[in-house]
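The material for today's practical consists of a large collection of protein records. Read left to right, the backbone structure tokens trace the chain's path through space. An example says more than a description, so a record of this kind follows:
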Amino acid sequence: MILVLRALGVGDLATAVPALRGLRAGFPDRELVLAAPGWLAPLADLVGGIDRLLPTDGLDHPVRPGRPPAVAVNLHGQGPRSHRLLAAAGPGRLLAFTNAAAGHTDGPGWDDDEHEVRRWCRLLHWYDLPADPADLALLPPPAAAVPAGATVLHPGGKVRAKRWPARRFAALARALADRGHRVVLTGSADERDLAARVARTAGLTADAVLAGRTGLADLAALVAGARLVVSGDTGVAHLATGYGTASVVLFGPVSPARWGPPPDRPRHRVLDAVRRTGIDRDWAATDGVGTRPTLAAISVDEVLAAVDEAERAVRVSGAVAA
């Protein structure tokens, strides 16, 4: 058995896809068990090659895969807590970044500035395992009763400092609807009031609010069939990358150099507030609790221009394919 720890969220799992596929290729005959939150099971199915999801939420409880794994792989963090959690499962070998505090000196060094996708691929390369950072495509989602060809606006996100102001999402929704887009608003159940407020301000009908009404599999299907996605730096943006859906992603206070879509894919456009404010390091030092309004530096007109660029890239790629 190969036990892999990634007990985080949607974007975290999506950015680990190349590494997970590398492990599948490197250990084709072993059971691949992913320790991750149980609610991520629909997304784990869309990665492919994962034999079993072991429900694991954070690092506070032991990981019990049933028997000691031959290899444990830390795709969660740099340790020491995550290293120790996996070591307690009794693996024959631990693949992880070096961490003297955890007694693990067998891996590469951690780089804070590294892109999340490349970080885990580099870890595997250190151990002579394959991993292609470009291998981000998700498997087709199961059919779902969601609108096809919609423009998905996602005003929420679990980190409030990464949210673009709701009034600007409303102005954007109104402008896109005037252009003929079928706009829908997504989010968690906790974000339903936010999405409803954006819809009301934009003059959209109540059925445009899908926040709290779509499970993860339905959300994947919605994004896979969407015309466009606009969001902050959160999980739905990574779904858009995984499905090649045109997207505009608003970054701040964390830099897209660490979490953004591949820069060589023009249908995914990035607006980077960090470049204008330079506070990425200040924000990171507070463990993700930020209060400075970095995203306010991005205007509605800039987002609309980025939408035009993303849709133009889709048309160009379609013409080339034809």
Notes: The longest helix spans residues 300-321. The first strand starts at residue 2 and ends at 5.
